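Sequence in, structure out.
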Amino acid sequence: MTKSAPVTRGPSPAEIERRHAGLAILDVDEVVLHFIAPFCELLAEYGARLHFDSFRLTGNVRSISTGAALTGHELDGVTERLYAEQERRQAPVEGVAPALRRLSETADIVFLTAMTPSFYDHRRRLLDAAGLPYPMIATERSKGGLVAELAERQDGPVAFVDDLPPNLEGVRRSLPRAHLVHFMANAEFRPHLPPMPPGTLRADDWTGLEAILADILGDGATVEDK
């Protein structure tokens, strides 16, 4: 059976307006929108609970009544339902909207999410309603390749923010000049994080993350200035 090509929804890198020399590329779940907290709330409706024993979901989500772990297939179903209902379940991370509004005055901002692309319209409505109108790409592709494509037209600094170290490592390999920043809104998984790529900066809230990004992205030069 021929494997289908990865699906991507949203503007292509070439279609995204380039205004500033600097570029911030942000993951969405656990960076811009809460994911773990609403995921746990949804699990409770299934009579299950997430145990923060290690940095993974499979094996850590168990039935409250029997203690049996939910299968990967069952977890995929819960995640799909969360994405289908995200407009009423997922809330913006505290401080993200004003922080990005300030940063957008000096740098371009793009959202890059591995959310199932079929839920693109749901997420676009959610972000717009939350005052987060920045371009978004939802893809099944490796983030590293797309970050490299987004950076091709950018002469200035590029920052990439994600909650998953493997995604940060993928970007490091595809675009060595990218500045890597780890941010995970939910603190309970942080003690179990795998190693970060060398040079990765870390923030615990949007106050710290905004300061890091402002330092990386610099003086706010425009395309015309360059």
